[in-house]
Design a protein that fits this description.
Blueprint (H helix, E strand, L loop, with lengths): L5 E2 L63 H7 L8 E8 L2 E7 L6 E8 L4 E6 L5 E6 L4 E7 L6 E8 L6 E4 L5 E6 L4 E6 L12 E4 L8 E2 L5 E6 L4 E8 L4 E11 L6 E6 L5 E6 L4 E8 L4 E9 L11 E7 L5 E7 L3 E7 L6 E8 L7 E3 L5 E6 L4 E7 L6 E8 L6 E7 L4
Antiparallel strand pairs: 1-28, 2-3, 2-29, 3-4, 5-6, 6-7, 7-8, 9-10, 10-11, 11-12, 13-14, 14-15, 15-16, 17-18, 18-19, 19-20, 21-22, 22-23, 23-24, 25-26, 26-27, 27-28
């Protein structure tokens, strides 16, 4: 099937055409099997808009599904919500990064173009202002920078850096001035300067050896602390981060200790900045960690399974984790069970309650929640396809939509919103 074609193989829903993208490992990071968003809406309609409550008929006090401002909304905030821009999804596959436009009213993706490069696709990252895209090219051990056209999302190369090793994860710090990289095979983190125009080209600011198998790297919302989860030896490195220099120093307590054998892999912070969630690759679970923003330290709070009762754990590994922008729901990908596990968040404690699992494409590694929190995109590394879902804003459950052929070996998916045009 040609790239950009869709099917209803994941269970198309009448009245909603949803599409999605997620990805998988290239296999060189030792996997046994195979970081964005904002508020949710109450039903089919524009991305990030709300209308009458379907059970009561009462207006929610936000946007209706025509995108107009309600009286209740202006009364409660004093101002109408910000205008929507255009929505785009980038997918890294073998040989390039493809760009897809997203219809905010339906979630439908349309293939627009591909930016080719010489190697398997790797992790993706975007700066906080969504003006630059960063792509790890696996096999070439480098990261490429691209300027994102703010209207068409066309990518223009703006430099590259030699990483020395293939990275398993990229992110930018909260200032957008530093590229953060973790290399699984080399057991190291490296930080590179980002120029004012978003380009790369300078030597590493800092390179540090780490414990075995680092699998992600990110700063907290304050941009004061940096964290690196390790599958083994079941720890999360904790650093103080200096955004002025782009350097880290070990925290007073340099490691947060996870449950033995759990394999902490990917991590995301709750929007309230008091908790973080970690996908545990080997124990088929997700952990809630209490976070002290004053000290930059994590404390393990609780853990819940991502699998249905009775499913053999040795047939599955967890991969990615995301939280909705409103902080109400958490999702984790299961590789082997091939599903997205769904959880509600206790607003008082941050603990998770399992909501079940929704089937998805084979070997779902990385997935994404859309910028306004309306849709979830999950791609199968083994199928080369994308599955799309609507997120129910009340229950957090997923409604499957269509699937798309995105090309060979999709490894990462990243969704952005560009500003409205004048």
């Amino acid at each position: 099937m040609a790239r950009g074609s869709s099917t209803g193989a994941v269970g198309a829903v009448a009245g909603i055409l949803l599409l999605a993208i997620a990805c998988g490992d290239s296999g060189d990071d030792g996997d046994a099997g195979a970081a964005t968003g904002s508020s949710t809406s109450t039903g089919p309609g524009e991305e990030g808009t709300r209308g009458p409550d379907p059970t009561t008929g009462d207006d929610t006090g936000e946007l209706d599904d025509t995108g107009t401002t309600t009286a209740a909304d202006e009364e409660s905030t004093g101002e109408p919500p910000p205008a929507e821009g255009s929505f785009w999804v980038f997918v890294s596959v073998t040989g390039g990064v493809s760009a897809w436009s997203m219809d905010p009213a339906t979630g439908e993706l349309t293939f627009v173009r591909e930016q080719p490069f010489d190697g398997p696709g790797g992790p993706l990252a975007v700066d906080p202002e969504q003006r630059s895209l960063y792509v790890a090219v696996r096999g070439a051990s480098r990261a490429d920078a691209y300027a994102i056209d703010q209207v068409s999302a066309e990518l223009t190369p703006t430099g590259q850096v030699d990483l020395g090793l293939d990275p398993v994860y990229l992110s930018t710090d909260g200032s957008g001035r530093h590229l953060l990289t973790a290399t699984f095979g080399g057991d190291q983190l490296a930080i590179f300067p980002i120029a004012a125009d978003g380009s790369l080209g300078g030597a590493a600011t800092q390179v540090l050896g780490t414990a075995d198998e680092p699998h992600s790297i990110l700063t907290d919302g304050s941009n004061q602390w940096l964290f690196v989860p390790h599958r083994t030896p079941d720890v999360i490195d904790q650093y103080a981060f200096d955004p002025a220099t782009g350097t880290v120093t070990p925290n007073a307590i340099p490691q947060a200790v996870a449950t033995a054998g759990s394999g902490p892999r990917h991590m995301v912070f709750h929007p309230d900045a008091t908790h973080a969630y970690v996908a545990n690759e080997f124990s088929d679970s997700v952990s809630t960690w209490a976070f002290d923003g004053a000290t930059g330290q994590l404390a393990l709070q609780s853990t819940v399974s991502t699998l249905p009762e009775g499913f053999p754990g040795d047939s599955n590994t967890c991969a990615d984790v995301h939280v909705t922008p409103d902080g109400r729901f958490v999702y984790v990908s299961n590789r082997g069970h091939d599903s997205i596990a769904m959880f509600s968040v206790d607003p008082g404690t941050g603990d998770l309650t399992a909501l079940g699992q929704e089937p998805t494409e084979p070997r779902p590694r990385e997935f994404e929640v859309s910028p306004r929190g309306r849709y979830l995109y999950a791609a199968g590394q083994d199928s080369g396809r994308v599955a799309g879902y609507a997120i129910d804003p009340t229950t957090g459950t997923l409604t499957p939509g269509s699937s798309y052929d995105v090309g060979d070996g999709p490894l990462w998916v990243l969704a952005i919103e560009l500003p409205p045009t004048e």
